């Protein structure tokens, strides 16, 4: 047996000034085909990806068009599928050769490089190793311990879900948690877009964006804020290219100049590839300081007021404002009172540049506002979103064709999980209906968010942890403080496809349960099964895998959830786990019964081309807010940062690389930033490096500048010169997560503020 571990050289590539996509994208896919060595059937799998009757990509949540391209997948989508379908296997033999303590010292990359998990495993404290077990033994052992904990305190177990699990699995998992006795259902949304779910709902009444794919055929301006399309959702570049071809203007605000929003060469277009043609994506690209989105949006709103004054009216849609909004007088007074000098100081941008974009907005009839985690992961992230909505409301750009607010979500079903009940907030779930359907009284007290779950692990109030996918221990803030606390858990259950860091942080009992990937055949009592998911634009898609599973011992996620439930919970004649696992269509019937307004004719429409739309009241200008209208917000501050950098500190922005998705590291070539590195780097602009008395290539330590009695440091980071605003440093997630305090999060959603952490640099 040979372990797959690699040594990674530190080298920089030449400055990257090529378009996103192009030959670099094709070469990257080819490299990963060679690395993972999938069988010849992988090409057929990729050709079915994101198409009706095929399987939906496990990477990003970007929507799937009704008329897909012959190759409807992108570079990172291909990497995700190749990563899933690797020939490498992490077998019981591997675990027999390595203690868990040893594996804890391995890198994330090397752990996952061992390949697909093949057998259910049980942690043996006597040998400090995982040992092979049977599925029945696993379910019996897990059930016995969870019953024991439940008898003492059902609220002391957390049921975490990553954003990949299907709607069917998520519905059953949420039911398991509530039958167990709690709403402890944090998911990966807590760490990325929960600010959207809370902040957007507060001002529009809807927790999700209002756009659909066809809106991009009709808009004449798109504004991007804090979103890196080229790496995080590359298929989005195709509708952007089409929009540019018909004359749509695109403006980007981002501290980092990301190649995907600069130029794009379509790797699916032979003419562009052979002729070397490319599409300029952003007409204006403004690198504002991190956390200054509130200020730049205030500047755009201010320019709308000025333009309306100069034109004698007609710029602001006052009919829409009067009929559909509240809070206008306070908002207008606040924006008019803000000075341009203050806006320039906070943003680091010139008034003329912001005003120019404001003019473009005033002259555009239909505008879409795009954003990502650059807005959500701040202490005042909810204010960022409210300010964005302010700008769009001023000209009636929500609730009509070709216009709207459109967050770009990350993981493939992270939005859908919330739709079908994965939520710690009981008021967001139709619990009375669920009680009626299943004959029990579900808990009504609020469950734990990610932040609260970590606090419970630290203080010992959380006794058990069940993880439906993901790498929770690596994705969380303050991870350096939490690693040691996992050993005190009474049980840690991990449902997974590959080995990762969370599996090495064992409790007194630990179980590792291997599951199918989405492209694999899921064969149950009634035959092959399909699952479903929801994309960023609220479209529901069916997905059916056909590949041979990685091992005969691998099981589907619904099977595993049902197995744990049957072993843990008291029998209930209305809860038919075996029947549901035998036929997932019956789970979809339950989802339809629970959410009839969203899932009408669910099974009938499962494979509708382009998916079916679950609906959105705000898109219809039905505002389910406290006032019954869309709400204007008067900004109490112009910075989204919790702590503005001082003379001796900087603002850290954590980012993913081009060879990464969430915590999964595919490789070490951050091609679109011109870097090939072992990821232990910190990027700064050259002037800042000189002012700090540093030199490029020097190793430094970053320390958190928040004074709360804790010391948080990450050392061994090599300085790299990079195009960034002053007072800004860039480093990789999750390597620098230890610098983010657990309590440094959005005030409303508790989303960690990964995009605005105050740090100091020590040589």
TrEMBL record:
Region (Disordered) location: 1-21
Classification via CDD domains: MopB_CT_ydeP, MopB_ydeP
Matching InterPro entries: Asp_de-COase-like_dom_sf, MopB_CT_YdeP, MoPterin_dinucl-bd_dom, Mopterin_OxRdtase, Mopterin_OxRdtse_a_bac, Prok_molybdopt-oxidoreductase, YdeP_MopB
Organism: Limimaricola variabilis
Transmembrane segments: none
Keyword Isomerase: no
Composition-biased stretches (Basic and acidic residues): 1-18
Entry annotated with the keyword Oxidoreductase: yes
Name of protein: Molybdopterin-dependent oxidoreductase alpha subunit
Family annotation (PANTHER family): PROTEIN YDEP, RESPIRATORY NITRATE REDUCTASE
The family this protein is said to belong to: Belongs to the prokaryotic molybdopterin-containing oxidoreductase family.
The Molybdopterin dinucleotide-binding domain, residue ranges: 651-758
Classification via Pfam families: Molybdopterin, Molydop_binding
Domain Molybdopterin oxidoreductase, first and last residues per copy: 116-491
Cofactors named for this entry: [4Fe-4S] cluster; Mo-bis(molybdopterin guanine dinucleotide)
Keywords, ordered alphabetically: 4Fe-4S, Iron, Iron-sulfur, Metal-binding, Molybdenum, Oxidoreductase
Gene3D superfamilies cross-referenced by the UniProt entry: 2.40.40.20, 3.40.50.740, Dimethylsulfoxide Reductase, domain 2 (3.40.228.10)
């Amino acid at each position: 047996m040979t372990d797959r571990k690699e040594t990674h050289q530190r080298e920089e590539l030449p400055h990257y000034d090529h378009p996103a996509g192009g030959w670099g994208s094709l070469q990257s896919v080819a490299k990963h085909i060679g690395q993972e060595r999938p069988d010849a059937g992988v090409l057929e799998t990729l050709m079915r990806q994101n198409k009706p009757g095929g399987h939906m990509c496990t990477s990003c949540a970007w929507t799937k068009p009704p008329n897909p391209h012959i190759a409807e997948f992108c570079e990172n989508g291909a990497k995700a599928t190749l990563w899933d379908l690797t020939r490498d296997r992490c077998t019981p033999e591997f675990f027999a050769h390595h203690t868990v303590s040893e594996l804890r010292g391995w890198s994330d990359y090397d752990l996952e490089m061992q390949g697909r998990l093949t057998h259910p495993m049980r942690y043996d404290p006597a040998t400090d190793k995982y040992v092979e077990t049977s599925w029945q033994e696993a379910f019996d052992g897990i059930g016995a311990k969870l019953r024991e904990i439940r008898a003492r305190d059902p609220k002391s177990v957390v049921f975490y879900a990553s954003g990949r699990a299907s709607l069917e699995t998520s519905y059953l998992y949420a039911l398991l948690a509530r039958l167990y006795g709690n709403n402890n259902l944090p998911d990966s949304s807590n760490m990325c877009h929960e600010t959207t779910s809370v902040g957007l709902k507060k001002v529009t009444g809807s927790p999700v964006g209002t756009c659909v794919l066809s809106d991009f055929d009709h808009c004449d301006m798109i504004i991007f804020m804090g979103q890196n399309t080229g790496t995080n959702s590359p298929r989005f570049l195709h509708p952007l290219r089409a929009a540019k071809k018909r004359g749509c203007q695109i403006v980007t605000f981002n501290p980092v100049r990301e190649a995907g929003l600069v130029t794009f060469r379509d790797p699916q277009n032979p003419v562009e590839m052979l002729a070397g043609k490319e599409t300029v994506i952003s007409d204006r690209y403004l690198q504002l300081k991190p956390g200054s989105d509130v200020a730049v949006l205030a500047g755009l709103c201010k320019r709308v007021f000025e333009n309306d004054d100069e034109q004698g009216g007609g710029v602001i849609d006052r009919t829409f404002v009067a009929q559909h909004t509240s809070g206008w007088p306070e908002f207008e007074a606040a924006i008019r009172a803000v000075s341009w000098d203050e806006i320039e100081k906070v943003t680091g941008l010139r008034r003329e540049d912001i005003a120019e974009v404001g003019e473009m907005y005033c002259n555009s009839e239909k505008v879409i506002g795009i954003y990502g985690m650059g807005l959500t992961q701040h202490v005042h992230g909810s204010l960022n979103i409210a300010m964005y909505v302010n700008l769009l409301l001023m000209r009636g750009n929500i609730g009509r064709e070709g216009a709207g607010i459109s967050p770009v979500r990350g993981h493939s079903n992270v939005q859908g999980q919330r739709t079908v009940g994965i939520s710690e907030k009981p008021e967001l779930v139709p619990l009375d209906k669920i009680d009626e359907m299943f004959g029990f009284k579900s808990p009504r007290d609020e469950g734990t968010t990610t932040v609260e779950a970590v606090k419970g692990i630290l203080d010992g109030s959380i006794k058990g942890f069940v993880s439906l996918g993901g790498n929770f221990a690596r994705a969380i803030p303050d991870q350096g403080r939490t690693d040691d606390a996992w050993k005190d858990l009474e049980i840690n259950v991990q449902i997974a496809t590959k080995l990762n860091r969370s599996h090495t942080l064992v409790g007194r009992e630990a179980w590792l349960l291997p599951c199918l990937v989405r492209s694999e055949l899921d064969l149950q009592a009634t035959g092959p099964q399909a699952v479903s998911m929801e994309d960023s634009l609220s479209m529901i898609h069916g997905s059916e895998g056909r590949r041979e599973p990685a091992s005969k011992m691998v099981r589907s996620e619904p099977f595993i959830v049902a197995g744990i439930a049957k072993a843990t919970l008291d029998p209930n004649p209305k809860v038919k786990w075996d029947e549901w696992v035998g036929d997932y269509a019956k789970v979809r019937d339950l989802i339809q019964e629970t959410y009839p307004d969203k899932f009408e004719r669910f099974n009938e429409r499962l494979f509708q081309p382009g998916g079916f739309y679950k609906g959105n009241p705000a898109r219809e200008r039905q505002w389910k807010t406290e006032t019954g209208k869309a709400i204007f917000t008067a900004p109490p501050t112009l910075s989204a940062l919790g702590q503005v950098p001082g003379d001796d500190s900087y603002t850290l922005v954590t980012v993913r690389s081009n060879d990464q998705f969430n915590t999964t590291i595919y490789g070490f070539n951050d091609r679109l930033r011109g870097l090939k590195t072992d990821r232990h780097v910190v990027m700064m602009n050259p002037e800042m490096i000189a002012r700090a008395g540093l030199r490029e290539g020097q190793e430094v330590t970053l320390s958190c500048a928040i004074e709360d009695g804790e010391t948080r440091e990450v050392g061994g980071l090599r300085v790299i010169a990079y195009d960034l605003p002053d007072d800004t440093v860039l480093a990789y997630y999750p390597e620098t997560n230890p610098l983010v305090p657990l309590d440094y999060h959005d005030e409303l959603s508790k989303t960690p503020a990964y995009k605005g952490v105050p740090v100091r640099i020590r040589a």
